[in-house]
Amino acid sequence: MSSSVFDSPPRRSSKNRTNLQYLGSPTKEKVNSSTLSLASPTKLNVVHSDWDNSTIYGNLKRNPSFLSSNQLPKTDRFIPSRHSSSNGRVSSEEHLPPPNASPSEHIKAQSQLFYKQSVADACGIEVGQRILQYQPLPPQSKHCVQLNQNSQFKTKTKSTIDPIRSRKISSNPERVLDAPGFIDDFYLNLISWSCDNYLAIALDNSCYIWNASSGSVSMLTECEFGISSLRWSDDSSYLSIGKDDGSIEIWDIDSSSKLRTMKTQGGIRIGAQCWSNHLVTAGSKSGEIYNNDVRIKNHITGVLNNHVGEVCGLEYRRDGLQFASGSNDNTICIWDSRSSIPQFTKTTHTAAVKALAWNPDINSLLATGGGSSDKQIHFWNTTTGARINTIDTGSQISSLHWGSSTSFGKEIVATGGYPNNCISVYSYDHKIKVAEIENAHDSRIISGQISPDGSILATVGGDENLKFYKVFNNVKKHEHSSSIANGKQMSKIMTIR
């Protein structure tokens, strides 16, 4: 029976037999030594190498700029660099503007954070979590996924970042009064606003009283020596006038009469004063602090000698148990009213400390502001002596006053000097500037006083202008202590002789 052509392949002659006997992997080639030998390598050099190490390194030694030439092979793929590509995260780490930046910059930065938080909440991820990952997360049960999906439509997730709303204050003053002869001296306190809405201001050697309710102005007295400080008593019955000769005059406002003159030991000007019931605490240019009891003949009951520079700031706490003093020696002293040794002495400021403000709601919270070389507002816990926080205002601070608003809660307003003579409002909780009035005066603001209702700020500067700005809308009338709440009754009981 004849065999099929598929049973056996046809025989080939030995002349046409190939040299590759195995048709599998190309590495299993057998070469006939009679036909191909190592002595003839040109027959194997079919594919040339695309990287000649000896040639490349030789050219590099002779010409270091060889790498920039066109002799190097070109790559056919683009691999992005890790440093130039995004990491695929929604990050909350942003460079926030400094506290003294304009409110618009703070609002823009906070809006970006709020937007990122909103996008993360909408995508069901957390801020800082990777969006694209190399490996998927382990699957969850369908029941949990349905609950999460349903909860997205039924409940609204509260963002951890609240949007910052604009805080609007008018840059136009409510009223402007001329103050000719006002002394442009940063270390003096020549303006004071009483709880009965009377504002006292010193112009040259004269003291004037402006009735903020009626708008009338009257001159109280004209002194022989220059006036260096003014301060109303707690019930606004008396006005103490400190002079350059180191004496203090006590005036009765109802009768417009001088009750007495108290002289200090050094005879040096009194730049700062503060009342606490029947005590008048006065700070001199030489650094001494005198406690004067206006009820007795020998009025000096104590002399405090902790400062070495002029005392330019004095403030009692509302309960009268503590008071703070600021000096030109860049220090702050927190005193117990019953002791002649300070409880705490702080040297954090790098300039004179004139601005002092006790929080009306938290007795142990004190704010202090430094001069042109410091520009810092420090917040202190006067019970422990610890510094709670700091705000860099970028401007000289001449006065500080607490307030509040519906948008930011507790706020503090600072009047500044160099460089832009501005009035700045800061949020105590956020530690940022929320409102400002730039160039409120043509020259630096020497001092500022808040109205009895806590809404109007009176500022006086070297431009001899007395301006009134409405800075707080959330007016709050604080309750006075028992001795101050009696008002005029206290003045009838107190006998000055």
UniProtKB/TrEMBL annotation:
GO biological-process terms attached to the record: anaphase-promoting complex-dependent catabolic process; cell division; meiotic cell cycle; mitotic spindle assembly checkpoint signaling; positive regulation of anaphase-promoting complex-dependent catabolic process; positive regulation of mitotic metaphase/anaphase transition; regulation of meiotic nuclear division
Domain CDC20/Fizzy WD40, first and last residues per copy: 177-469
Keywords, alphabetical: Cell cycle, Cell division, Mitosis, Repeat, WD repeat
WD-type repeats, residues: 227-261, 304-345, 346-390
GO (cellular component) term, any one: nuclear periphery
Gene3D superfamilies xrefs: YVTN repeat-like/Quinoprotein amine dehydrogenase
Superkingdom, taxonomy of origin: Eukaryota
GO MF entries: anaphase-promoting complex binding; ubiquitin ligase activator activity
Region (Disordered): 1-38, 62-107
Low complexity: compositionally biased ranges: 81-90
PANTHER family per UniProt: CELL DIVISION CYCLE 20 CDC20 FIZZY -RELATED, FI02843P
Annotated family: Belongs to the WD repeat CDC20/Fizzy family.
Protein name stated in the entry: CDC20/Fizzy WD40 domain-containing protein
Organism: Wickerhamomyces anomalus (strain ATCC 58044 / CBS 1984 / NCYC 433 / NRRL Y-366-8) (Yeast)
Lineage: Eukaryota, Fungi, Dikarya, Ascomycota, Saccharomycotina
